[in-house]
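Chain A, query sequence.
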Amino acid sequence: MYAVRSSWLATPTAALSIWLMSNAALAADTKTAEDWFRDGMEAMQAGKLADATQAFQFCVQVKPDLKECWFNLGVALGRQHDFTREASAYVEAVKLDPAYAKAHFNLAVAYDDLGRPIDALRHYDLAIAHEPTATDAHLNRAMLLLAMERTAEAIAGFEKAAQLQPDNAEAYYDLAEAQQIKGGKSQEPERTQWLRKAISTYQMAITKDAAHHRAWYNIGVIQHKLKDFDAEAGAYRKCLELKPKYTPALYNLAFALRDKGDKAAAKLAFEAYVVAAGTGKQEQRFVEMAKKEYAKL
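Chain A, predicted structure.
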């Protein structure tokens, strides 16, 4: 799971356009806020982030009460990973318009990047208060709550996101992950209840996106915890039908087949894993373990 950062750019509002027209009499050799705004937008679209930043800075110097300029300045700074100045720009935007939901949302993401979860949570709440159907805000807020180990609240947030976008496979996937974590922290019988609920939710994600290999993989992980090795192997096979060289699934499939006593199939899976893993550094520890297990069969 990861926080979604808005790619949205503010464009001049009708009120901004009226103000710009009223300032048409400015000296010919002086750029207007509209000029700097347009320059910033063009630079942003061309990927010239430093130029965009400078243009939006001039824009807010000419007209400090243009929230769109402050917002786009924040976007430009965020794309350069200057999260401190990014946050400061969004703060100015929400001072000008406390109901500016997208600015609250991006400010929350910036605070999250800065390691300020309480401030981030406050602005996700404000974004949702002013735009209750903002699914990304609900999802990001729930992810943050999960990272803060406020699992029950996170689950409620993911449930709300799934209600808002019932065809969004990722909303169900994130909800299932939270339920899986809840199960891992629970005692029986709640542990098994939560894990089975997570399986059902992963299956909902699959109904929304039939190519969701990660959902099948996580179902396999849960079935291993439930000691249903047949179901575990079946889930990894479904994952591999969608992504044949997905090394985590190949690796776990080999062990699931070993655990259920199918030595011949386990050997084939270990061989397939070693070939797929290749010489990647991150895989080497697992390759050595796979080879040792293969030798025991």
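Residues 12-29 have pLDDT under 50 and may be disordered. The radius of gyration is 25 Å.
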